[in-house]
Amino acid sequence: MARTISYREAINEALAQEMERDESVIVMGEDNAGGMGSPGEMDAWGGVLGVTKGLYHKFPGRVLDTPISESAFIGAAIGAATRGMRPVAELMFIDFMGVCFDQIYNQAAKFRYMFGGKAVTPVVVRTMYGAGLRAAAQHSQALYPIFTHIPGLKVVVPSSPYEAKGLLIQSIRDDDPVIFCEHKMLYDTTGEVPEESYTIPFGEANVAREGGDVTIVAIGRMVSVALEAADELASSGVEAEVIDPRTTSPLDTDTILESVENTGRLVVVDEATPRCNMATDISATVAQEAFGSLRAPIQMVTAPHTPVPFADSLEDFYMPDAQKVVNAAKATVGWKR
Amino acid sequence: MADARIAKVTMPKWGLSMTSGRITEWLVEEGTEVKAGAELAEIDTDKINGVLESPADGVLRRIIAGTDSSAPIGATIAVVAPADVPDAEIEQVVAEAEAQLASGEVEEPQGPVVATVEVDGRPISYATMGDGDEVVVLVHGYGGDKNSWLFVQEPLSRTRTVHAIDLPGHGTSGKDVGDGSLDTLAATVLGFLDVVGAGRAHLVGHSLGGAVVTAAAAAAPDKVSALTLVAPAGFGSRVDAGYLRGFASAGSRRELRPHLGKLFADESQVTRELVDDLLRYKRLDGVGAALETLLGTLLDGDDQAIDAAPLLATVEVPVTVIWGRADKVFAPADASALGQAKLRVVDGAGHMAHMEKPHEVVAAVEGRGGTSASEEGDEGAGGQ
Fold this sequence. Notes:
The structure holds 2 protein chains of 2 kinds. By secondary structure, chain A is an alpha/beta fold.
């Protein structure tokens, strides 16, 4: 039965159902068991934003608090994965990737290849990304393009509670290392989610809205921004098709190309900074593969090439919003040679 | 007190999540005489587009919510009454309805109540509407679920208790189908009747569900008062095996969509939401295995494996069969295979006749004649 739950609850439920199903699934990270503000273990916080709350008591010995040393515990999780566990390690903020990057990109991502397919590394790194929480430049970045760049990693950017649960279960069952990127501003958003376990395959985009005038590809939290823009566009007679790739690696280019072949116009919305991000990658693919279908220049709506500002007004201005997407879509529709 | 012959046409509740609907077109004008079940308006919801039917015989006296307007479910959007009901009485009903619409204080009609019972150790989910003495049980087809009856369940529930169930492996019922045999599925339906204390029930089955309710009626004649079969499996050997296998194996929207087009006479019925809902179902743990097992029940090579004709021959209660003339999955069966059953072939409908022409199914269950079906029997059925 589908009921309405939050993005946070959907992730927690996916973890609980997979831990129930498979004893080799363990959860580890800073404050995953206990955490900020909890005087005792009975009311343990469950991570900095409460995503793993309740799992510590439900699965004794399988929810591990780690020292504040990403290089140690991400490395430990990857090592455990090579020995038959299915660890889900929480890298609290994606901004902290720097201190454990060797373990991820030069170890986990390479094992299957370096050992001729004989080694598998079924580790999931859950991590929080994105601006909007007034958390300043070191806790607000959208760094999923960096992981997407690395062959051997799978990169998931769920846009809603439904995608979050199904993609996390798929991530845990997948035999390759998966970077699972949760937008911190989505945790309290709600949506219909089945109670049963289910998986969403990687590399299959969701067409979140159908339309024939312009294709809007949006990543993660930007999907809801694009849908808001599409509503606004519809009121002025422009029907936008909104595509959520769900995973940036593998990337479902077929669905994007098919849509652009139909609409002839593309807007890509990406919260990441604009050099070498998903917007440039998807735009380049479309320019190369569907150039003949394009009826207007591709538009990219991204953050500017700056650190995320701390001042509220500047942070708001930094992020792509529905109005910027509407303007970009109208620019493609109204474009004349 | 308003004249009891005045029938309010209200915004229906099609499906659990519907809260309002938009009238995309009125199909009849004010002043037109209509029969109960006649198509009045096309309604667009966030999930599905459907046709609203007249609740009564009479004249469409007033349209309250015009084309392109939206109304909450339960709101009175038009009035049907016999021509001799005075205008003043109609105006009084219209004034009340307009006041309700303006204030937004519309009493929400009771939607389906969803519950789960255990039958033979399997959780079986079902949705109930209405509380009449007569009990009707709706059984969907392969890959379907209780929501596929949304246009049929609501009109039937006005005077009956109508349960729409999810067969094992489907909807939100348990995904274990056991051996997946017709007997196992029929036992589930009969077990369900016992658990909910239904007594004798009118069983309505679509496609695989049609074969299931036929087997149930053959196994327990004392529990079944009548059968209505919609494009039932098990009559004749012909089937589009490619559709069934393609449905079972499709894992993405692009794979699934072309198969779903075969279900309808009008392929525009395959909305993004329909494809999405089916994909969401197919992604549930256990569904792949369930569909695979049931495929073995349905198919013998490229032919139908089920032969329900001998079962139907033992059934003594009234049986009506509805078949879409444009059914591309199961061709309308030979009359001989249907024995004494009445066959109505419905124009403008494909395999999903209960979604495309719901009033025909409603009329059949109510024992009335339909409006766009031809009774075939004298001249030999399925003659196309």
